[in-house]
Amino acid sequence: MKHVIRTVLILLALPMVASAQFTFDEVFPADSTAANSHGIAIDAENKVWSGPYYSSLINDGAERINPVYVYNPDGTQTDFSPLKGSVTADTLLRFGPVTGVSSSIDGNIYVSSHGFRMTASESGAVVGGVWNQSRSFIHKFDATTGEALNVIEVTYLRDVNVTHAPNRPAVSEEGYVAVSFVFPASPIIILDSNDNYDILTTVTDDKLGFSRTLEISADGTMIFNPNTEPYTEGGAPGHIEVWTADSVFDEYVVSTPLATGSDPGAIARYPGTDIVFATGGGSGNGPLSGTSTMFNRYYGYSLNSGQVVSHFDWNYASESQAIEVPRALAFSADGLTAYIGSFSQTGNGAIQRFTAPEPVSIERTAEVVTGFALSQNYPNPFNPTTNINYTLAEAGFATIRVYDVLGRVVSTLVNQEMPAGQHTVSFNAANLSSGVYLYELSVGNVRLTNTMTLMK
Predict the structure, then answer these.
(1) For residue 92, what pLDDT is reported?
(2) Segments of the chain with pLDDT less than 50
(3) Gyration radius (Cα) of the chain, Å
(4) DSSP alpha helices (H): ranges in 230-333?
(5) How far apart, in whole angstroms, are the C-alpha atoms of residue 11 and residue 274?
(6) Which of 55, 273, 289, 451 has the fewest CB atoms within 10 Å, counting from its CB?
(7) Which of 301, 332, 363 is at the close of a domain?
(8) Model pLDDT, residue 107
(9) What's 128's DSSP letter?
């Protein structure tokens, strides 16, 4: 007798659908007249940090700044907002154009800045009046107080004779910071979590494509570089280049890409799942012809299947509105709130808030025949061999395959006619790297899955 089992899984390499779509809540803040948003982060207190690329005049036009605004959840600014830069050695290092904002699990905020605003003593002009774009910085702040904790100059990571901006810094849960730059052929570097932010790993010296942003997985073993280069010769422009490694201390290699045919200008991992959200467009200042995705759509990609499992769209106030250029995206820790920002919007509506009734998850409905079973492998975790027990209610052609987290088959353990009854098959993973793998039993219309962990 057949019955249906409904499960919610994080690791599935099989067809999936997403639950809990985001819906538009409001323009944030509701009476916002702030400048465009080139980076958004949400801290542990659900405060929203937003940095515009363009500068603005303050103090009756006597001072030009590139601010970072910090909003409480109700849309009011905190008492330390806006921030103008970092105080280091009693010197105020003012932001140049803000190119990205990120949060970390330890309660800190990272702001990348293309250059800095000179002081009067350096330029002879009004305070903050001159933009020096020859240097690149990442400013680190305490999210609770707004206190500047560190300034990491990353100019040395690229050719100092070529001026271009750093991408949004990507921060893992261990505090490792991935850094790159907008132009092609830039390096992607992972900085250590120590006070000096020493170079830990060079992911690549020569990244693909023009890109505005960067993301890193929670454990640091995956780097996501959205860029404008076609994945295949003659293909549609743009994809997300994915670099993987066993750990942040090991060599990174290019893996299966995400979002082929897109042109992402914003990317963020969705908390607690294997989903990464990225925009359909936004690396440039207008739509990129030939893309297979909607420019103003925010797509959620499963790292296991590579497929879109969720999406939501920029909310236009009217059909006559100009196209928005998405450059900022962030999720609250509980996954129930998303904030998005526009590079081209300069008045009311530069930031929008979306909400979901429950966290986005991945669901799969499977028909399971009574008498079929796929047991947890033993031992688990294992190194490098393990046994898998399975039971067939009736004879049939059985297949057991092992998949990696990107949904690729790494081993086929069984692929033949099998009699009814209990069976055991061994799996030797000596040629694989440490990590979580999914194994699937397929017999006729029956599919059973489970996960196992290889630890070397």
Answers:
(1) 74
(2) 1-19, 121-126, 363-369
(3) 24
(4) none
(5) 7
(6) 289
(7) 363
(8) 84
(9) T
* Neighbour count for residue 444 (Cβ, 10 Å): 11
Q: How far apart are CA 39 and CA 282, in angstroms?
A: 13
To 5 degrees, how large is the angle CA 361–CA 366–CA 371? 135
Query: Residue 321: CB partners within 8 Å, gap ≥ 6?
Result: none
How far is Cα 294 from Cα 325, in angstroms, rounded to an integer?
A: 12
- DSSP three-state, residue 61: coil
Residue 329 inside a domain? The answer is: yes
Q: Looking at residue 117, what is its pLDDT?
A: 83
The pTM score is: 0.75
| CATH number, domain with residue 449 | 2.60.40.1930
Q: 3-class SS at 275?
A: strand
Instruction: State whether 265 and 313 are in the same domain.
Output: yes
Query: What is the DSSP pairing of strand 63-65 with strand 56-58?
Result: antiparallel
Task: Centre a 10 Å sphere on the Cβ of residue 202 and count the other Cβ atoms it contains.
Answer: 13
Neighbours of 7 (CB within 10 A): 11
CATH classification at residue 117: 2.120.10.30
Range of the domain at 432: 371-454
Examine the fold and report which residue of 363, 383, 401 is the final residue of a domain before the chain moves on.
Answer: 363
The structure tokens listed for 161 are 């004779």
DSSP for 179-223, written as a single string: E-BSSTT--EEEE-SSTT--EEEEEESS--S--S--EE-TTSSEE
Asked if residue 431 and residue 317 are part of one domain, the reply reads no
Give the span between the Cα atoms of 321 and 248, in whole angstroms: 44
Q: Evaluate whether residue 150 is within a structural domain.
A: yes
| 33 conformational bin, left if phi > 0, alpha if psi -120 to 50, beta if neither | alpha
So what's the pLDDT on residue 445? 75
The answer on 151 and 55 residing in a single domain is yes
Q: Please give the Cα distance from 273 to 115 (Å, whole number).
A: 35
Q: What is the pLDDT of residue 400?
A: 94
Alpha carbon distance 73, 276 (integer Å): 24
Q: Are residues 330 and 218 in the same domain?
A: yes
